[in-house]
Q: What sequence folds into this?
């Protein structure tokens, strides 16, 4: 086999059309990436060939979002090319690390759902699961965050502006997705009614394939992303106006379905484009899945024996009526046959945590965009209510609760409920979340539906967060326990036996300090942020939202600052690092960012706090920044209000890299304590059951008698007027004083006590690092490999192919 250097030069010359004298850093990155891709192509082709020739049962994973970060380093490690890449870099005279920085992040997702999807794909390939994933090829990824006077400014993120070496466009597998139009009705040979949908507007779905190599094996699975292009036909009204330029413009606009990723909080905005995006995605994916099935199978009635489709969230729920439409209108099956097959083929992962973030579509828009599906949705609901009535006598009020059609001033389709009805399995993503699904979200549903709701707690791509992100720690683990752990996550538990060995503990401390120094250099170079690596790093990096309770951390910061101002000496010198994006339409979340940056100016410029307390907000937080920050963290802040977080996975990444955690009892935090122990995970505050039992909560009563909080709010009233646009922060503060919906003030005292306890523990560095090693050893349970194994055994019923 040719070495990477030869491939590099070939691609630099014949793809980038450059040589050493003219190549930019990006040219070098592209050439090396193509060289690495060439090393996996044979495995990729062979994997797909085996799946097809042996006609294996296959998992199809549907997700509207994927967040991979950068791929070059991950692919080099998974393919076992580290030594070759280092030799090539040495021969060619460039730094691999600098080349890695050239890659733009693959962040086609708002938050945790996309990161979970990427983690599962890596584990599916590593475990040899016959699988293929589908998503959308957005033109613009999640927005780029900049700061202007401490306030978030959104910038478009054209992630493809420099090209993408990992994607391969497959126009030969394009398909047509229709919208709008009319329905005709006829009778078949047996006298049964048949419907034909005649769309008025067609959009072409063009696939782009991305290889997903497994770690140290020959499996390379595929992620297929669909981009939308206008069809070559003008819209029907061209015959009326005959304006060629207008017709071209209208046709161009009709094809912009995948133009941008819609932010999470905009669930009730841009409804038409949301519906079009979701339908375009599932329609193209289902057509492709059926095409693949028919290559080696003739009886569509047996498709559920060879195909299982996992829906990642309710944004994929329109797949249920779309699959029914294909089976009934195109394949000619009866409604009963189609419904049986549909309910045998789909499995659904719910991420719902409250009714506010459940996907709902207005009927009047569905009738316009997807007229045939409207009828199918009504039929599904009629069948469902008929089945319920047959099992139990219910009142009209109870039936309304169970209906997937919400009757209000407008009629809405409850998409999550439809996904539950059309799937054979439904899973939550943490034990706490699964109980919420049963008790709150799908509570009205009868027991026979509840029985198919199971739990599969989320995990992370643990190889990436050690082998890619924290190579020194990964090397230490290998030296101590051998080379088996990257493929056998339970092996990492052997680390715990070294918890009392001083030399090992000292090396762990050196690794943590080196990670802090690297972060120091990175932040100084890229953000002009100066941090002290000899301080305690308290990190709070995740999506910015009131329910994430960054305000708890802010209030604690202010309490410590005021104590320093009053002459108190801090037990531990701390550097507090914040990061995260607020949804553009979330006013209060954006004011949290504004307030943090006001504190950055106030505290960091005060000589009295200079040696004891520093605060920083790092803009545009994403996977690449997380990879720099997480290995350096001493403490991870996981403060989401109980009952408002489905799972969370950043907590697992911090723990795997040895950080302690201060956490509220919600989501996967609960399982973190169960699996890792309470010595490094510090719970504080109320449980969701406490919140539910509270008859009335009055934050005013807390404020009236709490001297420390009174001083904090008085201090804010004193300093805010001196900052530009600081009046915008007052609604955020008023929400705490007036309603405090996430019980920030209620939990404040307990949170502060736990923080002081952490300060005390940190003074004993040997004990701290010993427990940190134990945390790393036990965190392997949160591997994505364990998650995929549970899906494969309990839901998909597939065996690893290797």
A:
């Amino acid at each position: 086999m040719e070495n990477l250097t030869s491939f590099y030069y070939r691609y630099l010359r014949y793809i980038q059309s450059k040589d050493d004298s003219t190549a930019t850093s990006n040219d070098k990155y592209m050439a090396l990436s193509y060289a690495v891709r060439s090393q996996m192509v044979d495995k990729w082709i062979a994997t797909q060939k085996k799946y097809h020739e042996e006609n294996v049962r296959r998992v199809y994973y549907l997700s509207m979002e994927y967040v991979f970060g950068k791929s070059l380093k991950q692919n080099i490690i998974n393919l076992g090319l580290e030594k070759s890449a280092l030799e090539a870099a040495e021969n060619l005279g460039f730094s691999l690390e600098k080349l890695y920085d050239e890659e733009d992040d693959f962040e086609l997702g708002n938050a945790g759902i996309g990161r979970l999807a990427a983690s599962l794909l890596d584990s599916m390939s590593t475990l040899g699961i016959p699988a293929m994933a589908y998503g959308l090829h957005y033109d613009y990824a999640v927005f780029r965050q900049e700061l202007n006077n401490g306030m978030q400014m959104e910038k478009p993120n054209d992630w493809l502006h420099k090209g993408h070496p990992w994607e391969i466009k497959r126009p030969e597998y394009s398909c047509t997705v229709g919208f709008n139009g009319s329905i005709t009705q006829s009778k078949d040979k047996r006298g049964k009614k048949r419907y034909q949908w005649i769309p008025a507007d067609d959009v072409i779905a063009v696939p782009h394939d991305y290889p997903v190599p497994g770690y140290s094996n020959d499996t390379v699975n595929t992620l297929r992303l669909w981009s939308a292009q206008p069809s070559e036909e003008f819209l029907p009204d061209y015959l009326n106006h005959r304006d060629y330029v207008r017709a071209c413009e209208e046709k161009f606009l009709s094809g912009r379905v995948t133009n941008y990723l819609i932010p999470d909080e905009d669930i009730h905005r841009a409804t038409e484009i949301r519906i079009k995006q979701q339908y375009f995605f599932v329609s193209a994916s289902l057509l492709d899945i059926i095409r693949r099935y028919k290559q080696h199978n003739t009886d569509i009635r047996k498709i559920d024996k060879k195909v299982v489709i996992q829906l990642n969230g309710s944004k994929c729920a329109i797949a249920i009526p779309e699959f029914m439409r294909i089976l009934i209108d195109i394949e000619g099956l009866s409604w009963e046959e189609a419904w049986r097959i549909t309910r045998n083929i789909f499995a659904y992962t719910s991420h719902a945590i409250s009714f506010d973030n459940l996907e709902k579509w207005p009927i009047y828009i569905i009738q316009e965009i997807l007229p045939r599906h409207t009828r199918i949705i009504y039929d599904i609901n009629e069948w469902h209510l008929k089945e319920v009535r047959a099992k139990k006598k219910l009142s009209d009020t109870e039936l309304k609760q169970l209906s997937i059609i919400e009757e209000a001033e407008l009629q809405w389709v409850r998409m999550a409920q439809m996904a539950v009805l059309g799937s054979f399995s439904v899973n939550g993503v943490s034990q706490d979340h699964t109980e919420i699904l049963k008790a709150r979200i799908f509570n009205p549903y009868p027991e026979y539906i509840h029985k198919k709701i199971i739990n599969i707690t989320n995990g992370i791509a643990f190889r990436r967060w050690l082998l890619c992100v924290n190579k020194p720690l990964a090397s230490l683990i290998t030296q101590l326990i051998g080379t088996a752990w990257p493929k056998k996550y339970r092996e990492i538990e052997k680390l715990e036996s070294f918890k009392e060995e001083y030399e090992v503990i000292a090396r762990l401390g050196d690794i943590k300090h080196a990670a802090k120094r690297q972060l120091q250099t990175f932040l100084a170079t890229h953000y002009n942020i100066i941090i002290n690596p000899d301080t305690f790093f308290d990190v709070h990096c995740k999506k910015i939202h009131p329910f994430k309770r960054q305000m708890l951390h802010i209030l604690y910061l202010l309490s410590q600052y005021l104590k320093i101002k009053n002459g108190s000496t801090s037990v531990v010198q701390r550097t507090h690092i914040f990061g995260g994006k607020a949804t553009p339409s979330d006013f209060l979340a954006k004011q949290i960012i504004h307030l943090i940056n006001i504190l950055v100016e106030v505290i960091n410029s005060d000589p009295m706090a200079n040696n004891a307390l520093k605060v920083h907000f790092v803009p545009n937080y994403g996977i690449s920044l997380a990879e720099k920050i997480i290995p350096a963290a001493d403490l991870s802040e996981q403060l989401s209000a109980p009952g408002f977080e489905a799972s969370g996975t950043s907590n697992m990444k911090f723990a795997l890299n040895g950080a302690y955690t201060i956490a509220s009892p919600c989501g996967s935090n609960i399982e973190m304590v169960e699996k890792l122990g309470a010595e490094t995970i510090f719970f504080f505050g109320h449980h969701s059951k406490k919140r539910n039992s509270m008859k009335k909560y009055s934050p005013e009563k807390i404020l009236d008698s709490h001297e420390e909080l009174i001083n904090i709010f008085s201090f804010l009233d004193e300093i805010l007027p001196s900052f530009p646009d600081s009046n915008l922060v007052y609604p955020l503060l008023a929400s705490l004083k007036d309603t405090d919906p996430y019980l920030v003030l209620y939990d404040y005292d307990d949170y502060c006590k736990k923080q002081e306890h952490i300060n005390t523990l940190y003074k004993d560095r040997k004990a701290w690092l010993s427990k940190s090693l134990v945390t790393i050893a036990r965190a392997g349970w949160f591997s994505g490999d364990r998650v995929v194994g549970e899906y494969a055994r309990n839901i998909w019923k597939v065996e690893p192919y290797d």
